[in-house]
Amino acid sequence: MISFTRPYFLRKALGLFLLGQRGGGILKIRVVMESTLKEISSNGDSVLDMKDKCGVAGGVEDMYGEDRATEDQPITPWTFSVASGYSLLRDPHYNKGLAFTEEERDAHYLRGLLPPTVLSQELQEKRLIHNLRQYQVPLQRYMAMMDLQERNERLFYKLLIDHVEELLPIVYTPTVGEACQKYGSIFRRPQGLFISLKEKGKILEVLKNWPEKSIQVIVVTDGERILGLGDLGCQGMGIPVGKLSLYTALGGVRPSVCLPITIDVGTNNQQLLDNEFYIGLKQKRATGQEYAELLEEFMSAVKQNYGEKVLIQFEDFANHNAFNLLAKYRTTHLVFNDDIQGTASVVLAGLIASLKLLGGTLADHTFLFLGAGEAGTGIAELIALEITKRTSVPLEEARKKIWLVDSKGLVVSSRLESLQHFKKPWAHDHEPVKELIDAVKAIKPTVLIGTSGVGKTFTKEVVETMASLNPKPLIMALSNPTSQAECTAEEAYTWSKGHAIFASGSPFDPFEYEGRTFVSGQANNAYIFPGFGLGIIMSGTIRVHDDMLLAASEALAAQVTEEDYLKGRIYPSFTNIRKISAHIAAEVAAKAYELGLATRLPRPTDLEKYAESCMYTPVYRTYR
């Protein structure tokens, strides 16, 4: 790639471009200017006729005084790079490492810049997975994967796709949580856009600084509630980066159309504020009108810059902001909150699949949640919507099958005045209950779901009580990362004497109990959002509707096999995740067309085949 910040260099760029075309090289020219290129300069010379002059250090004239400037004098930065030779090896989009063929090495000036051997992508992949397995610390593997992504994009995604079950816990939860905690220390180069209060009034300009212009998916966070780890401020960037890696690896969305963004409004984490290596704004979080105005400017700028059909995924916002933002923008923008809607969809899929083991319908079961935040209430609402869809009972009636426990105990009608607005639909008539174990005994649930973000809260007494009430209790410990899980797979199976059906948010190893090996399911949002996003993109959908989430849940549940059920697992293996994502994308797109929200016409005849054809494949390309 050739890039110039001044029209002065255009003639030389064009000459190199023509030379590259004659030599079969990949040469792209991009001229970056503050205003439209004018044919004639102010002194009457044509731009194309301007002469290069020798500068102090050779080459072109030292127009901006870089060579003459002292270290404390400002200079004008400019870049000159060609997607050939040394710079080609430094471009992650095109770099193939030792896989460049003999012909490509000649055509693109790579002779001498690489060792003489030629290694296929498959052999490179084999070497890399071997090297990764030598690391004993998961964070070291995470850093190695991020280095690979910045060095060789296609090899990164090929490795991730082919070893998804092994590497998913590295690039995503639980390891990404530790990476966010230490992001300031391991930060090497930016992987997305950082928009802070300093950029208020010029967010549109900031968006235009991103090199890719055709963005289709944005994952944005303000870092206030990262997994179960709390306020990590600007260091929450690891989450959007990780999520978008999965959009590409699992959902086949091209990496060039993905944009991770962190909105930095400060942090209330005093440890970060006191840390000299913290990379964000060192101030307390902005709230109220100041916060709302920044987000309003951001949302308007995104639509203005990228259009109506860019999907904006809200990620790890605190409860109060998460609900407010979703409610405010869901009718004006294409928005999706993964913590509320994505988590709800994947959990509902597990519940639908579990009915084959539990028996009955969703309406026959009673659900008790520990945790009444965005994840808990989002799951509860989608369960109620599915019950309403299946039985035609009113939504208010369906909600009565679902109970929530928060930090103050069971959510009941006597607490109505003091409850946050998103908890009020779940305040049923019942006497106050303070402790979870007492709520389990009083409500007698068949399904226990943990979204509290507090580890070890499903105690032995809680699990044993669930087992005494149900022949097959369904226990879902969904909080991330692993340290925050309400209980482990081993605890659930042991305390229930092997009767529990268990699923979790973070992965657990298979566990053997009395001669039987249990493989717990992982209620991982990565089952849903990549395929969901692909379905939206390929259909040109302009708004997210709850029925599309229900369609995604039902599509995922249908992928659970008999082999999965025999192992006690209510989610399919990640091995076939791209096929699963294509199926989910097709069902989501079909629902969007049915609702009149899809704009890409005519509708493809076979949506699943169309989804597969749209998916990015990270094999190396041959260069002319």
TrEMBL record:
CDD domains: NAD_bind_1_malic_enz
Cofactor binding description: Divalent metal cations. Prefers magnesium or manganese.
Keywords on record: Metal-binding, NAD, NADP, Oxidoreductase
A GO biological-process term: malate metabolic process
Chain ranges of the Malic enzyme N-terminal domain: 149-330
Domain (Malic enzyme NAD-binding) ranges: 340-593
Cofactor(s) annotated in UniProt: Mg(2+); Mn(2+)
A single MF term (Gene Ontology): malate dehydrogenase (decarboxylating) (NADP+) activity
Nucleotide-binding is among the record's keywords: no
One Pfam entry name: Malic_M
Active site per the UniProt annotation: Y172, K243
Residue sites binding a divalent metal cation per the record: E315, D316, D339
Catalysed reactions listed for this entry: oxaloacetate + H(+) = pyruvate + CO2; (S)-malate + NADP(+) = pyruvate + CO2 + NADPH
Functional note: The chloroplastic ME isoform decarboxylates malate shuttled from neighboring mesophyll cells. The CO(2) released is then refixed by ribulose-bisphosphate carboxylase. This pathway eliminates the photorespiratory loss of CO(2) that occurs in most plants.
Protein name as catalogued: Malic enzyme
Organism this protein belongs to: Nicotiana sylvestris
Gene: LOC104247285
